[in-house]
Amino acid sequence: DAGMRWVAHAVAAAALPRLEYLNLSSNHIADDGIGALATALAAAPASPRYQQTSQTVSHTSDRASNKLTSQSRPMPSLRTLNLAANRFEDAGLTSLVEALSTGRAVPNLEELSI
């Protein structure tokens, strides 16, 4: 998760001004890394070049789902979210569905895969 914390810090600090697309597929990001990324996506300033974040999360638990959905600020840069192949149980999926159904958590979400 140290690497994911670095990526999260760079996203939140707008340290990657030419970034247009972020794809995190085929990784084993742990719960703390997901939390750091969710916080960073909520804090990231708007960028005219930044078009899409694709977050493929696998092998995570209900704790990661709660970190994704408990952000007090929306994550406007998140457009694609792939949660296939994870270990969410009823509680994690319930919190995810509740957060996504309002449209406030991820207002620009275009694609969700579970």
From TrEMBL:
Residue runs in coiled coils: none
SUPFAM superfamilies on file: RNI-like
SMART domains referenced in this protein's UniProt entry, alphabetically: LRR_RI
Domain of life of the native organism: Eukaryota
Region Disordered: start-end pairs: 48-75
Start-end of Polar residues biased regions: 49-59
Protein name: Uncharacterized protein
